[in-house]
Amino acid sequence: MNATNRAVVVTGVGATTPLGGDSATTWEAMLAGESGARPLTQEWAADLPVTFAATAAVEPTEILPRPQARKLDRSAQFGLIAAREAWADAGFQGRAGEDAPVDPDRLGVVLASGIGGVTTLMDQYDVLRERGARKVSPHTVPMLMPNSPSANVSLDVGARAGAHTPVSACASGAEAVGYAAEMIRTGRADVVLAGGTEACVHPLPIAAFANMMAMSKDNENPKTASRPFDTARNGFVLGEGAGLVVLESADHAARRGARVYCELLGQGLSADAHHIAQPEPTGHGIATALRHLLATTDLKPEQLAHVNAHATSTPQGDLAEVKALRAVLGENLDPVAISATKSMTGHLLGGAGGVATVATALALYHRVAPPTINVDELDPEVDADVVVGKPRELPSGTIAALSDSFGFGGHNVVLALRTV
Amino acid sequence: MAASREEIIAGLAEIVNEIAGIPNDEVTEEKSFTDDLDVDSLSMVEVVVAAEERFGVKIPDDDVKGLKTVGDAVGYIADHQS
Lengths: 420, 82
Description:
The complex is a heterodimer of chains A (420) and B (82).
Chain A: E1 8-16, H1 23-31, E2 38-39, E3 52-53, H2 66-69, H3 74-89, E4 107-112, H4 118-131, H5 140-144, H6 148-157, E5 162-164, H7 172-185, E6 191-198, H8 203-211, H9 222-225, E7 241-249, H10 250-255, E8 262-271, H11 284-296, E9 304-308, H12 315-329, E10 337-339, H13 342-345, H14 352-366, E11 368-369, E12 392-393, E13 400-407, E14 411-418
Parallel strand pairs in A: 4-5, 4-6, 9-10, 9-13
Antiparallel strand pairs in A: 1-7, 1-8, 2-3, 6-7, 8-14, 11-12, 13-14
Helix pairs in contact in A: 3-6, 7-14, 11-12
Chain B: H1 5-20, H2 33-36, H3 41-55, H4 61-64, H5 70-80
């Protein structure tokens, strides 16, 4: 390879979330401090221990043509919609090598889901039991496989450098973004669509998560149930949707004069090896990921101005994260504006890392940290500067931000981004 | 009571419309499912299962390969319906 600049930059963003059907609407709603949580009005929800969720603001079937939508699991529908937005936002139209000026062999997709096509699986199991084997849809497997969203996006844009699906529960979307950056850095690709998607607002996952005692059961108050860092936090609020970014080598972006949101410096990774679902309470595993990040990227701790926290509103998890940040960053954490956007979007599980990457890129680009809502009384053990209630302006000059994502199983992913 | 060829075409047109979004009046005997009507091999299985239910026929997997055009399917159903 020639002496090219393999630095990775973000040139496009796309999202469909409980706050809005695209990234701009989502971002505006974040800055306004809105909640995407709402009561579930479906009949099946009535007897569940949790009767609310942060459901998508825009139904994907209102966007996609019906013949296409019926062959896609809801998670792939979200992924495709957000991918197309990010693709267009980066200035591309049509398929690579045709209308879009990207070599298809140098274009990749890394789109993750934590759970995969669970609603398709459940619906088709109902068909099997009620109507028999002959009636099970021949599209079932291509719809429910967790790599379906990435495969469908690669088909849509004509990406041939690779289509991948890292799976690490609620860290999946962030792991996808990190994997995509590595594809560019190691020379496999020039452009990669990357992020996460999830769609599991369905009675089985809700009952299962509720029985793990992981979810807030504040059924009377959906909009204030997700309250990261607040003393009264009592579990996460299930969300659905997708968020993707277009990552691009700095050279490729410069050659075509692309608008650059920020640089993606790299990722820190670790595993807790502590418990299959509980966070390690001291934050040791998260700290390991942060140290890995500092050791392998050009991130300068004194440049840090913002963290999009994983903070899902669980009693243990939110504290472990702050402890780890403090342990590794020390006084460099003092001026850092910490935002827990899951207070507004709910927790999109495998989609969360994608949406958080979009939010972090926009925060750096617009130099404003979105708020954390529902913090009536900040937990006194939270030894960090949480952006409470209203957005906060970020400083001028070169600043960096982290986007944290942690998953059941003890998967820790921290992404670092920096202004350009 | 056997369906007429016209009734079979009309029924197939509704099925193809439901599955592939093709307007009913474009589903005519000479059209190829794959090349003209956006029905790929997986969706063809859906068309077959829906047609079996609608016209009371059994279409074994080995026979599906022979149904390239709408006319092929109309003929097969007309010959095999009870």
